[in-house]
Amino acid sequence: MSAPLWPGALAVGLVTALAIAFMWAENEWEVVAVLVTAAVGAVVARRTGWLEPAARAFTEREPAMLRLGMLGSFVFVGFFHDDHFPLLMAGTVLVYFLVCLGLTIQFGYAGMVNFAAAAFLGVGCYTAAVLTAHTAIPHLLVLAIGGAVAALIGSILILPVLRTRGHYSAVVTIAFVLLFKTFLEVNDTLGGPQGLKLPSMQVLGWKFNQNFSVAGVEFSFYVSYVLVALTLVILAFAVTRRLERSWIGLSLDAVRLDETAAACFGVHIARWKIVAFTLGNFMAGVAGALYALMLGFIAPTNFTFGDSLIMVSIILLGGIGNPWGAALAAAIVVVLPEKLQLIQEYRFLLYAALVILVLLYRPGGLLPRRLRVYLPGWKPR
Amino acid sequence: MDAGLLAQFVANGLMLGMMYALVAVGFTLFFGVLDIIKFSHGDVLTVGTFAGFSTYLGLQMLGAANPWLQVLAVLLVATGSMAILGALIAKFLVMPLKSAPPLNILLVTLMLGTVLRECVRLFFPDGANPKRFPRLLPDDAMALGSFNLRLDSVLLFLAGLAVIVAIHVLINRTKLGLAIRAVAQDEETAKTMGINFTLIVLVTFAVGSAAAAFAGVMNGLYYSEINFGMGLLLGVIGFSSAIVGGLGNIYGAILGGFLFAALQTVGAVALPFASAYKDVFAFGVVIAIMAWRPTGLIAEKTSERV
User: Over the stretch B157-208, which tens digit does the pLDDT of each residue have?
Assistant: First the structure.
């Protein structure tokens, strides 16, 4: 007997309603009120145990929950159909979520540290900028090429990353992200510190940078980008979850938990690390290409070490290895500082303090990864 | 290339190397006793420098204008206050997290660094803009051909050297150093031998943080300018140096620090491309070194228990 669906549906509905209310809120007090409601609601739901049925719905009725999640996103997009800012925020959250799905594979499954996510996002961005400016390659293909180039450049790091572990591995990727940003800043052919401009995205003659109307309703041009981002996220989510559930995910988990033991059982450590690293970087590159087309302008300051840290903090806050958690955390981390204009000076301070508190009191993140379910309806003790 | 200009680059590189080494020593000491990376180290350096700068402003206001007195006070306040801050961070943030996953500790200390940095930016008067750090040391210059050897640079370098030697003596020749090394080698055994583990950890964090504050003041005196973001890059470079040298080994940290400065200098002077690529070159070489020696140049002695 599988878990009832309605608690999960209720949770998705509430989160969507909160997201809409949050973006709708005009002045600071409304924003704070929404935030307090959300926080109190979460705590109460945890204390009273109402969260448990919802969590079970998420794990046991995943396909249905995915559809509900999509429905929630459509409701959000429909609600703000002619409002640029909330849609841009939604698009940015989806791009970050896409990168974090890649990081989930790297950190969460294979246990590889990668502090260069912003650099791989940047590779995707610059690939898209160069390709759209100088070639006539169809833009959907540009997205894929962006990912491929990021994976290719990532393969330079494979040797040092495979040979090192832990902190030593961290230094390799940190050095790479710093190298990448400095390189962009001093390289004049790629625009230097001023960055590059991109043309509007075009798919089959459909120009993305124009508002459009369907049946008399005006839509913001960002709707097109959000829909593309949503499609990519759904694809990546499906890949990530299927990967996790498959024997590949099992091998990756083995590699993360104990390399020596995994090697003794015949798991090819280097192979799975390369797969995880390349796949993660590919996702970051695709996200980057879309991000660049959506923003229409990119500069080296978007790809600093700090941005990588934001992405890593998203997956840690969400609960490492749980894509649902990453989705929630991406929304919180991207949107919260933008909306908190009343504390604009203090927002980094507050944000950093918040992360410290979460990690001190909830080290597993907001939604920790659950035990693997090997069989439908199987209850691990 | 002109010999004078070359000498200038070498002098500058040595000075940078000294600062990097001082920061890297902190990273490696912390790793030694607790097996953790404390990433807020660079921002502790910033706070220390600003503490020193405030001391200078305070002394100016009180009318104590003797530069030697000022230097002494600036150094004492900067290192002293950071020693306390370092110990506090260790006590209330790092020790409770000792058994957490390394990634969590890394992120918590990084975020603590952000908190410190933002505090300097927001709460120091006009902290968002760069500050002019006073030239407190005599800046008589000695001209050797086209190379200007400034007395303050020589003094700074010697002072840095003295600090490194002092740390070396502390670690290798004193009872306290013996305790630190014992804790680094085996926490459990050290405890059973009657070593006060908590105290040793706090002292180690104090020493490391004081060294960073010293490097920060050195940086301020040398470049005559400080800003709230100065610790970020110095911290990352110090961390890379400690790693390249081999974590847990203070000679490795010193070696790594000077190596990184040397790479930057070579990148700026001796290579065919523009000097703006010096950091690209230095970090590229760091990646290559990590591929070649996965546990640093002076390898960590580890054996894996299965």
Answer: 999 999 999 999 998 899 999 999 898 888 889 999 999 999 999 999 999 9
pLDDT at B161: 92
What the block records as the tokens of A369 is 């990864």
Percent of chain B with pLDDT over 70: 95
Work out the minimum CA distance from B239 to partner chain A, whole angstroms: 8
Which residue, among A249, A248, A246, A272, has the nearest Cα to A259 in the 3D structure?
A272
For chain A, which ranges sit under pLDDT 50? 1
**B92: which 2 tokens?**
């209330």
Task: Answer whether A312 touches B (CB < 8 Å).
Answer: yes
Q: For A303, which DSSP code?
A: G
pTM of the entire structure?
0.88
Q: Using N-to-C axis directions, what is the helix angle for A247-257 and A269-295, rounded to 10°?
A: 110
CB–CB of B24/B94 below 8 Å?
A: no
Which of B40, B121, B280, B293 is the best mutation test for A, with the most CBs of A within 10 A?
Answer: B280
Q: Is the pLDDT of residue B244 over 80?
A: yes
Q: Nearest Cα to A228, choosing from A67, A324, A125, A98? A: A98
Q: Among B89, B9, B67, which Cα is nearest to B270's?
A: B9
DSSP B90: I
Place of tokens 């990119």: A298
Of B97, B101, B107, the CB nearest to A313: B107
